[in-house]
Amino acid sequence: MDINGSQAISASRANVWKSLNDLEVLKQCIPGCQEMSGTPEEGFEAVVRAKIGPVNTKFKGRVSIEDVVDGESYRLVGEGSGGVAGFAKGAVNVRLDAVEGGTEILYEGDGRVGGKLAQIGSRLVEGAARRLTKEFFANFKAVVEIDPDTGDKDSRNGPDCPQAEDA
What is the pLDDT of residues 10-43, one digit of tens each? Predict the structure, then answer.
């Protein structure tokens, strides 16, 4: 399964980079995140509840960060186990480009699943992966974006990311 795309954020590249490496920001923005610990240098561990098609399970996973070009790019490599639901493994390359009005996050990666997740079909799994990616970036944008009129964090953003409902 391939996941790729981009997301424009109205914030400086330095602020976006800092936020992509901030445990508290990530914890707020990852859909279904219940627990998260770690550092960019040592990797992150998380417990995430996710609904993928008819399977609603809790994943325990680990993500390491490799090939870091400070302030510009890195590669995330992760794997998670959902118990009887199966497992997920994948990697994604993330790059930040300065653009007019802010920063564009470009991401390209692939993943695979096994167990019951693999049995429910690739279309459902890919659809869920795209939905979760979209939710993450909507949440991330709400936390990180800067109001273009004031230069401050957008006043419409509350203290926490909105957590989207499971589809």
Answer: 999 999 999 999 999 999 999 999 999 999 999 9
Paired with 102 in beta bridges are 99
Global model pTM greater than 0.90? no
CB 142 within 8 A of CB 25: no
If you search the block for the tokens 């990852």, which residue do you land on? 30
Dihedral of alpha carbons 123, 125, 126, 132, sign? positive
Cα–Cα dist 133/143, whole Å: 15
Extract the tokens encoding 119: 């049995």
Nearest to 137 by CA among 49, 2, 38, 11: 11
Q: What is the pLDDT of residue 157?
A: 40
Please, are residues 7 and 141 in contact by the beta-carbon 8 Å criterion?
Answer: yes
